Structure formats: structure tokens, C-alpha cells
Amino acid sequence: MNQYPTLFLSLKDVDGTTFENAFNMLKFVISSLCSQNSYLETGENIRENEKDIFSRLRSQVIMGTTKKC
Question: Rounded mean pLDDT of the chain?
Fold first, then answer.
């Protein structure tokens, strides 16, 4: 029990008048979720590459920008 953390992500508040606005809101929601669970970065059972990904999600570095087709 409690071997693997479970994070709950709700997309109900992700909204925007444009795709870019909605995408920015999604980045904020993911970043906030990672910030609320920042204790995961110090876990002993988390690999270094997973810690790096988590940290980048928290700071919104990994999420990039939208691209036009």
C-alpha cells in the first residue's frame, strides 16, 4: 500500500477563447499539480531522469509553445 503515488488531474477548469489560451491554462494546471506534490522530487525510489522531468513540468520548461500548422 502507498507504494506508488497517484496524482489526480482534472481538466474541467482548462478553458480559453483560443487554443493558445487553453494550452497556457493546461500548462498552469499541470505546473500547479507538480508544485503541490513537489515532495516527489526528493523520493528515494524516483529515478534521476523522472525527477528532472517532474521539475521541468513544475517550472513549465518541458511544455514548450504551440505551433501553427
Answer: 83
